[in-house]
Amino acid sequence: MNVPENKPVDESFAKPLVDVVDLDISFENQTVLSGITRSINRGQTVAVIGESGCGKTVFMKTLVGLIKPTEGHVRFDGIDLSELVPSELAQLRRRFGFVFQHAALFDSMNIFDNVAFPIRQNEPDTDEVEVEDRVRSHLHEVGLPDDVARKFPAELSGGMQKRVGLARALVLKPELIVYDEPTTGLDPIMSDVINELILHTRRLYPVTSVVVTHDMHTARKVADRVMMLYPRRMLSAGDSQILFDGPPSQLEHSEDRRVRQFVRGEAGDRIREMSKISTTSA
Ligand SMILES: Nc1ncnc2c1ncn2[C@@H]1O[C@H](COP(=O)(O)OP(=O)(O)OP(=O)(O)O)[C@@H](O)[C@H]1O
């Protein structure tokens, strides 16, 4: 079994980097998240799992200030994101890296310019020799050869594009990196390449990571902590929306049947529950 090397290396690693306090997120009439209070320690890799539509991506976006809490607070390194004006939030986001589901590369730029983009945007005084050095070393880190730099995104496979997305996310040495479905759409081998790169990144940098995923293999392999969310609409008032929060090795032993069914990929009572919801909402 692969064990992520996420042991604390100094005192600061034991302190939370992210604090979520009494978080509620609603859109129009729909409450997606409610009553979420959690901390994420420095250096931790947290996989957020749960069925489609339960609010994983919303949770992740809220952590990095892309969605504002309807109620409650998100603090990064003690800074309440809601209290920042847009320019301060933009400044803080330089400490975050984003790996998007579809790589989100700029189609009109070659790979070199895509990876160089955050450096040129955020550190405009960096000389081009250093830019070149950093871009090439990050491309190497994700296993891409030099000749890829001159290519355009459309010329690369999905797996290569994801690796470029990871190189771009790492180029500013983020403290928090969020991965949105990093292995979706990839074959099992390329998925495992991405998993290995997530682990490799964690070994190289003291980064804190949040990985939103449907892929239980990814969750088990890369995370030292798994949080399972459940759709708010399926719960009664007062029920916790987080059905599981612990090490991946404990998922199978959860006392909650819904957790065990989810990780085994069993529908269980869900078909009946779903039909109840569609009847009542019709
Ligand atoms: N900007 C938005 N405006 C309105 N509703 C939204 C917005 N973003 C998300 N939602 C709704 O919030 C709910 C949760 O969405 P979210 O994308 O977080 O789910 P998810 O768990 O990541 O699902 P999936 O695994 O399918 O990606 C969905 O019902 C979605 O339609």
From TrEMBL:
InterPro entries noted in UniProt: AAA+_ATPase, ABC_transporter-like_ATP-bd, ABC_transporter-like_CS, P-loop_NTPase
Alphabetized Pfam families for the sequence: ABC_tran
Protein name, per record: Putative ABC transporter ATP-binding protein
Gene3D superfamilies in the cross-refs: P-loop containing nucleotide triphosphate hydrolases
One of the record's GO molecular function terms: ATP hydrolysis activity
All copies of domain ABC transporter, residue ranges: 18-256
Keywords from the named record: ATP-binding, Nucleotide-binding, Transport
